[in-house]
Design a protein that fits this description.
Number of helices: 7
Order of helices and strands: HHHEEEHHHH
Largest sheet: 3 strands, antiparallel
Shape: globular
Helix content: over 70%
Structural class: mainly alpha
Amino acid sequence: MQYPLVELVVGVWFLFIVAMIRLTYLHSFAHQHASWNSFFERLCMYLVIGILVYLLIGLMVMDWQTQKLPDAFTLTGIAIGIFLVCTQAILLDPHEGDVILNTTHQLRMSSPGSIGIHGNIFLTGTEALVWGRVGSVLGVAAILLLIRWLYKLIRHREGLGLGDVKLIAMIAAFLGFWPTIAALFFGVLAATGYALILLAAGRANSLTRLPFGSFLAAAGIFAATLGKDLIDSYTNMLR
């Protein structure tokens, strides 16, 4: 039943994405002041989430079965994610997301739609979005490579595959830095919980290999669908 079940889940997921795009189209043009730009921005957002979850479903199943994460999914996914963020950058309004150096020489982000921008532009919104996303990919990959190196240095054996590094980089290409950190956090929690259950049942030991990519992919799906609301809630709680 696994294969038809996976196909059914992917089909239902894309049906949901198409329904959300249709609702966005109807809502965008229900008002006189609606623009194609706002519609295409929302369209890009749903495409980002739709394609990412599709890739993660496949990777989650494959890693659980084979403990392999094919480059055809992860590296191609990184390229697709960067392409989509470049498309989003093209649709930004003038000065939206600009990083400016104001008269007090402090960096600040201009509010979306602001027309009263004072000071020198440090990065345009397009540059900030694209280079910020590229930096996110490199940053999260560096974090996992550091963990991988430290584990090998201490335990003298491999503890984290390069496929997991490419997977986290792919999630960052679609979602950015902080949602990816949230995915990494919940992925580690889920994998740890599963490992403790196996240890308690006597079905694993300290040398047992776990399909960490499956837990990371599942956490990536959570971050793609609910991560933004969770991060916003956590940020508001700290204020």
